[in-house]
Write a structure and sequence with these properties.
The chain has about 350 residues and is an alpha+beta fold. The protein has 8 helices and 20 strands. The chain has 3 domains: about 160 residues, P-loop containing nucleotide triphosphate hydrolases (Rossmann fold), CATH 3.40.50.300; about 55 residues, no CATH class; about 110 residues, no CATH class. The two termini are about 25 Å apart.
Length: about 350
């Protein structure tokens, strides 16, 4: 395992079913999570992200591969033998216990003295701003309040790793955003290692130091939010993280880090993030919609013209689709543009579009 890893998965596989057609929930997944890192597992339903979390937590045992926590091989150890705590999507609070009793539960079963439990519970309640709720039962709490109780209970023992399985999915948008920020602030204050499962791309981008995008039980790409958004290594990742325009064309020229691609007779200069494609190869070029400028005051290296197909108003944003010589382009702007039947100039820089690596 890597020396700087707190959690390390070495080619783990989890198989369900038997016979001639086993189903891989997770297939040869390798991950390294560093101390103090906020690490997200991002994917759609069935991608393997929750199974991966359960393998780390000890709720599942892999058929192949090893799981290490703090340098120790914990592959076959039960959850209570691992220095981790899991916050489940359902919160799993005890309905017959008060908020304070729920938070104190792990200390109580560890036979910590009452004199020590009381101040530690008070500090945990204060940290999550739920001190006034200490005598209530879970049924008397809102979803956001229940979430805070679950987090306070999880962190009172200061585990090496906190595992969070879609903990905000049951909250409405306003509360989810508030708790999300509190969660990120808390992780920075405590410097604990968080491994966070979510299907929400915005959530993963906002919270993560690094993230793994999962698909069909395998890891598609690992990197920082900016690396994955700006330099996806596959079309799947590019489509799954945010919105994108995809153009198909042939390479006509290759320089040090930029290639010229012909799309429907229009030459486009695009950045090469990986291996250089040979001249004559058909490639896919990706452009994020917010990187395209409409009637820009300065000339950018890539230019075309287009007519408005439709405009969608999304609060402070306008999403416009333009019919152009290279195909339909989606453009996102911070307001200011209204639909017109006149052709408009669309332009973008070479570094704002990339050639996606060819898939094996």
């Amino acid at each position: 395992m890597k020396d700087d890893s707190l959690v390390f998965l070495d080619r783990v596989s989890k198989i369900y079913g038997n016979g001639s057609a086993p189903v891989y929930a997770v297939r040869e997944v390798s991950l390294d999570v560093r101390p103090g890192e906020f690490y997200s597992l991002l994917g759609s339903s069935g991608s393997g992200k929750t199974t991966t979390l359960r393998l780390i937590g000890g709720f599942e045992i892999p058929e192949y591969g090893q799981v290490y926590i703090g340098g120790e091989d914990v592959t076959t150890l039960p959850p209570y033998r691992r220095n981790v705590h899991t916050v489940f999507q359902s919160y799993a609070l005890f309905p017959h216990l008060t908020v304070a009793e729920n938070v104190a539960y792990s200390l109580t079963i560890a036979n910590v003295s009452k004199a020590e439990i009381a101040p530690r519970v008070a500090e945990a309640l204060r940290m999550f701003q739920i001190s006034t709720l200490s005598d209530r039962r879970p049924s008397q709490l809102s979803g956001g309040q229940q979430q805070r109780v679950a987090l306070a209970r999880a962190l009172i023992n200061r585990p090496k790793v906190l595992l969070l399985d879609e903990p905000l999915s049951a909250l409405d948008a306003k509360i989810r955003e508030e708790v999300r920020q509190e969660l990120r602030d808390l992780q920075r204050q405590t410097n604990l290692t968080f491994i966070y499962v979510t299907h929400d791309q915005e959530e993963a981008l906002a919270l993560s130091d690094r993230m793994a995008v999962m698909h069909n039980g395998q890891v598609e790409q690992v990197g920082s939010p900016s690396e994955i958004y700006d330099r996806p290594t596959s079309r799947f990742v590019a489509q799954f993280i945010g919105k994108a325009n995809f153009l198909t064309g042939k390479v006509t020229q290759v320089d040090a880090s930029v290639a010229v691609v012909e799309v429907n007779g229009v030459l486009i200069r695009a950045t090469i993030p990986g291996d250089k494609p040979p001249v004559g190869e058909t490639v896919t070029v990706m452009i994020r919609p917010e990187r395209i400028q409409v009637n820009a005051a300065t000339s950018l290296v890539n230019q075309t013209t287009g007519k408005t197909a439709n405009v969608t108003y999304i609060g402070q944003l306008l999403e416009s689709r333009f019919e152009t010589a290279i195909g339909q382009l989606l453009v996102t702007q911070l307001g200011g543009y209204s639909s017109t039947s006149e052709a408009v100039a669309l332009s973008w820089n070479a570094e704002d579009c990339i050639i996606l690596p060819q898939q094996a």
